[in-house]
């Protein structure tokens, strides 16, 4: 072939290359355009999904705030008692005024009105005053709240004035015996235009057509629940067919979630995100007109054409360079992956071989296929012998059914940890903790057991249990010695110091009677001394009664606890006390009575020192062969984790006394919500 022929073919060769490159660049430009179109669409979809998530979270939080607030009303026994007295007794103007004041106070907390309904569903009080009875829908909700004794959050409904409303119905509960009864229901009406509709109307990003809709499904219709951007007077009035194939709201109401494209209530194409509000019949939709979303693509078209002209001259070189680098990177990654795989295999082999725990791997028939060196040492087999055994050979005779059950359970879960007895080659056994897991390696099902000898751990646990038992016995003896010492000191205060002070008082009185009228100043001083003596004698009396309450031995536990509460009530004039106790006499031996008395005394002392309560209650009830105690106050409460050592020691002493008696002790407290101490003592009989 001549040089002339080569020159003749040369331009056509480059033209062909140019055409191919141009075609590739144009294709790339088209794909870029489509990619940007998809990116813009995806970005808007993510924005809509984020808006939906935000709105759902805000609505859930708003609903939860209303429910939490209603729960505080439900947990208020004093308000419930007032309502019960108002319903059951003759109308008392003062009680009616107090309840109305409470309802008026509650109505200021984002509620349009509050209504008090009796168990028969009749409106008894309302704030503000209203003579209307409940409509059938609200009557059914009130009945549901009374029956379930739970707070009910209504759906949106139209009131008598055809305006949308929501309400929260709260049962008022009173303890009668060992169960709660419902004495009434508070119905708190919510104005959706105050928070819910403004929340839905607010759009977090600039948009000319962005809109949030709240709908629900009623029969074969979609009902719009909120005000819309492009149409007025909508809530609970605008209804569209549920079976509309292209209607966006109908598709969401039928169960479609996530990103949805279709026509909205105006018949305009939109892109939207749909979701459901948990624990309600509401569906929420965030939508933007498709025309607004795709508007930036017009400008993008000009930019893409300009970019294609620039890229045509350099596309071939760029593609070749990129292809070469991709190939080099691919082979480099392959090399790194293979090197890491080999290193990992070596490390795994090292770990399994020399691990301190026993590691066994068995096939689907439970035949051992792998074992580490520790397994051979622990079981007394050579490694070659282990690889010929069945897993059952390492368990004592009779373990077949147990092992089959464990293997079956291990298949159904991600793993299983249990304790079992293992058997060595010489027939001896040892306790072990076994971690059983099913593996699948290259399509083969395997079972891996990681076994740890827990002989020493069990011995340590036994020693610790014995130590705990001894410590509890020592604590019991120390508390008994403490009570004996208190009794001894009490007797000395009563028999010696008390009598000495009384004798001294009598002597001073005798001297005072012999003073002449001219000694009036001295006589006045003597009377002051007698007053101080009386106070001192009374204080000594209080001390020896606190050290050893004589009422326990003289009158019994019931009278002693009543006297303790009465004395405490005299000191705490600002608090109201409620005492509800069964007869406890003859149920406990004297040492047990003393311990119970001390626990109650310590609890009341803590209340007096720290709680500053308005109400204190003590309930003591017999339940079969147990007696339960509940001491509750509505004071300041505290955080147990940040409590002082002194308070913690007092609580520990109370709990230890109860545990020594074989009972259970529980404490609940929260700052600003009071404290509850409950404990149960088994009945042993008086000895």
Low-confidence region ranges: 6-11
The main pleated sheet reads as: 6 strands, antiparallel
Distance between the termini: 129 Å
In which range does the helix fraction lie?
Answer: 40-55%
The count of β-strands is: 22
Mean pLDDT over the full residue set? 79
Tell me the strand percentage band.
15-25%
| Name given to the CATH homologous superfamily of the domain at 555-682 | Histidine kinase-like ATPase, C-terminal domain
CATH architecture of the domain at 555-682: 2-Layer Sandwich
**What overall form do the CA principal axes indicate?**
flat
Assembly status: single chain
Task: Give the structural class.
Answer: alpha+beta
Provide the CATH topology of the domain at 555-682: Heat Shock Protein 90
CATH class of the domain at 555-682: Alpha Beta
Radius of gyration: 42 Å
Separate helix tally? 18
Compose a concise summary of this entry.
By secondary structure, the protein is of the alpha+beta class.
